[in-house]
Amino acid sequence: MSELSGRRIVLGVTGGVAAYKAAELVRLLGKAGADVHVVLTAGGARFVTPVTFQALSGNPVWSDLWDPRVENNMAHIDLTRGTDAIVIAPGTADVIAKLVHGIADDLLTTLCLARECPLLVAPAMNRQMWEHPATRRNIAQLAADGATVVGPAAGDQACGETGMGRMLEPDELLEHLIAFFQPKLLAGRKVVMTAGPTFEAIDPVRGITNTSSGKMGYALAQACRRAGAEVVLVSGPTGLPAPLGVERVDVCSALQMRDAVVAALPGADVFIGVAAVADYRPLSAAEHKVKKSSAELTLTPNPDILAEVAARPDAPFCVGFAAESRELDAYAEGKRRAKRLPMLVGNLVQDGLGSDDNQVILYDDAGRHPQPRAPKTVVAQKIVEHLAGLLAMRATRLAR
Ligand code: CTP
């Protein structure tokens, strides 16, 4: 289940080399549960045939304003009604110019003029075309007219040049679309988070760590971002890709994690500690590999990052996590009170560690709020909704 599930999306494919990426986008949209209807311009059909899009979307492909398959010859009206969004990917300089000037000389541009739904455009063109004053004006006007412009990115171009104008990759476009439909519950908020394990070096080849996968923290960072927050994710070693739009700061040890959190805190509204921070570290990491003969290891406690942040006079709204193997309520609520946290997410380790699913209970001053077992992405969304509710309540209290 995603925000795209059951959504009807009209995908306009225009005549750019990036049209080949639109085929993958159709596949990803379909996988996310969207009902995709492709409108292919004459230029687009030069790059990819309608058969490809028909096979991938499972729906007929539309190109002709006068398509006899539409009963009253009103394809430009019929196709937009009940549609949740029109997405144009790739959007050439030419189609963008037409949209801005209200030109409706083919099915896609006519559809856009006749639409009642949002329009998203993913530009794709040569870097010089992108930088041309006419395109600059048109892009500004397109955004001012209420369309959402996603991308482009910089990089290698099909023409052999390098620069701004590459269409975003299909998975990036998908993420933009999911975020587009997400309620902006955390708009204007800055969220600093920790995620993953820490690694406390013993010597150059060994260390103390744990089996935290980082999946819950990364899913939560993505959910906060989709909800409109600026997100800084301070992450221990995980191997997971950073969610789109999230600033990730890579660290290893608890001390590095604390320093990175402190550096990111200015301006933060929320701090969420998801990381499984090692409670202890070797007193000092050996410069050379430790030999069997000197097996003694002296440990010293690590700082409690979450407790330190929550104790600051200018503390942001702090959310903790507690993974327990038994007596969840007692331990979780005990940790919440000991660290003076307005909210804590508790789960049994056997329910979540390393898995794609999780079952959590949310604890706050009002009590415990059990959540159903669900994929971590869905759990993350629930946590964001609960957090946003508490932030709104706090804002109302402060305004009184
Ligand atoms: N935490 C932290 N810094 C630490 C330890 C924990 O920021 N050095 C944060 C975690 O990110 C999590 C919460 O505190 O949000 C977990 O609380 P804690 O009591 O430290 O959990 P455990 O380390 O699991 O405690 P225990 O081993 O005693 O169960």
Output the keywords.
eight-stranded mixed sheet, Rossmann fold, 21 strands, decarboxylase, magnesium, CoaBC, alpha/beta, ligase
Structural commentary:
The protein folds into 2 domains: 8-181, Flavin prenyltransferase-like (Rossmann fold, 3-Layer(aba) Sandwich), CATH 3.40.50; 190-399, 3-Layer(aba) Sandwich (Rossmann fold). It is built from 15 helices and 21 strands. The chain has helices at residues 19-31, 42-47, 50-57, 75-78, 93-101, 107-114, 127-131, 133-144, 170-181, 215-226, 254-264, 305-310, 328-338, 349-352, 376-399, and strands at residues 8-13, 35-40, 85-91, 119-123, 148-149, 153-156, 162-166, 190-195, 200-203, 206-208, 230-235, 247-250, 270-273, 280-282, 299-301, 317-324, 343-348, 357-358, 360-364, 367-370, 374-375. The chain has an 8-stranded mixed sheet with strand order 12-11-8-13-16-17-19-20, sandwiched between helices. Strand 6 (153-156) and strand 7 (162-166) form a beta hairpin. Helix 1 (19-31) packs parallel to helix 3 (50-57). The mean pLDDT is 93. Bound molecules: cytidine-5'-triphosphate. The site of cytidine-5'-triphosphate has 15 residues, from helix 12 and strand 16.
Morphology call? elongated
Q: Which secondary-structure class do the elements indicate?
A: alpha/beta
- Rg from alpha-carbon coordinates: 25 Å
Distance between the termini: 39 Å
Determine the strand fraction and express it as a percent band: 15-25%
The total of beta strands comes to: 21
CATH class of the largest domain: Alpha Beta
* Helical percentage: 25-40%
CATH topology of the largest domain, anyone?
Rossmann fold
Instruction: Report the major sheet.
Output: 8 strands, mixed
* Average pLDDT, all residues: 93
- Looking at the overall shape, the CATH architecture of the largest domain is 3-Layer(aba) Sandwich
What's the tally of helices? 15
For CATH, the homologous superfamily of the largest domain is named as CoaB-like
Bound molecules: cytidine-5'-triphosphate
Low-confidence stretches: none
> What is the number of domains?
2
Sheet with the most strands: spatial strand order: 12-11-8-13-16-17-19-20
